[in-house]
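To: structure subgroup
Subject: Chain for Friday's discussion

All,

I'm putting the inputs and outputs inline so they're searchable in the archive.
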Amino acid sequence: MKNTFFLAIILLVCSCKSEPKEVQQLQNGNYRVTLEVQDNEELPFVIEVISPTDLRIYNAEEVIEVDEVDYRNDSIFIKAPVFEGYFAGTFNGDNFSGDFIKESLDRIVPFTAEYNNDQRFITESAANENVSGVWEMVFSEGIEGDEYIAKGIFEQKGTSITGTIRTTTGDYRYLDGVMEGNTMKLSTFDGAHAFLFTAQVSDSTLVGTFYSGNHWKEPFVGKRNADYELPDANELTFLNEGYDKLDFSFPDANGNMVSLDDERFKDKVVVVQIMGTWCPNCLDESKYYSQFYKDNSDKDLEFVALAFEYAKTEEKAFNSIERLREKIDITYPILLAQYGSSDKGEAQEKLPMLNHVLSYPTSIFIDKEGKVRKIHTGFNGPATGEKYVEFKEEFESFIDELLSE
C-alpha cells in the first residue's frame, strides 16, 4: 500500500510537468536579411538554408559557407567563418530578427530576416541608366585627411549589377545590386563588413553615399574613364631613409618571441604579411598564401604573419588567430603584433622602418640576405577578376626570381 501511494505521487508530479518546448529552427530555403544603416536605408543580402546548421551567404559570385549556428529555445545565433561578428535573433513565425554584434568594437546593427524571399533589392521600375564599364571615383572629396581615390568596375544586365570597387588599399568585395530608374544600389555582407553603396547615375557621372554598417557613411563621386588606373601598389609603402631591413620581435601563441633573426628564416626568401583576422581582404590573401606555402614547402621560402587585432584582450586576440589558422589550415607562424586596436598609426610605431602602414594587408618581400626587396600595399582579391590573376602571376614570378638568386 505504501509503495502504491509513492508511485501515485510520482505519477502525479510527472503529469503536472509541461512538455518541453520544441526548439524552433531555420527552414530550408531562402531568407532575405536586411541590416539597418543610416538615413533609413536598408542593407540587404540573401542567405540560403541547406539544413538548420548549414547556411550559404551570397554576394554575386561569392558563396560563404556558414556552419556555426546555435539554437536556444526561440533564439538563434549565427556566426560567420573566421570573423568575430555574429547574429543574435529571435523567431517570429517563419521569420527572425535581432542584432548583428561585434563585441570588441561595441557595434550593434539591428536586422530582420524574411523567409521565402530571395530578392536582394526589390525594384518597382526598369533601369534608365547602365553603369557597365570602368569609373574613376573619389570618396570624401575635398575632406582633408579622408579623401581617397578608387576604381569602380561594374557589369549591368537589365536591372542587375555586379562588380567591385578597388582602392589603393584593397577592394570592396563582391558587390551585388540593381539599377532602378537612375538609382544604383549595391551591397555586400561577408561576415565582417556590411557595405551599401547608393548613387544617382547619369550616362557619365555617379553621385552617391557609401555606408559601412550603421557607424559610418561618406559621399563619393565618379566619372566614366575606361583608361583609369590606380597608383602602383608596389610604390605606396617603402622603407624610411637609412633602413634596408625589417626588424621586429613579436610573440606567437605559445609566448615565444619570434624575429627574422631566428634560424628558420636564415638564408631564405621571406614574405612578411601585415594583416588582421578581422579583415576580409587579409582572409583572401591568407587563403592564397597558405596554399602557396604548402605547394612550395620544398623551397627556401618562409612566410610569417604579423596580426594587428582590435580584440580587447591578448587572449581574445590569440583566439581569433587560432580560429583563422584552423579554418584555412595556415601552417606558417602568425604573431600577435598588437591588440586592443588596429589603428594604422600605432601599427607604424611598431614598425618604424616603414614610411607608414597604409593598408591591411601589406606584404613585405625579403631576399636571402635579409634585405627588403619590395613592399606590396593592399590586395586585389578574387572579386577583382583579372587583377587578382595579375597579382598571382606577379607574386609567383617575383618569388621565383628571389629564390634563384
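Points worth raising on Friday:
The two ends are 96 Å apart (CA to CA).
DSSP finds five helices and 25 strands in the chain.

D.
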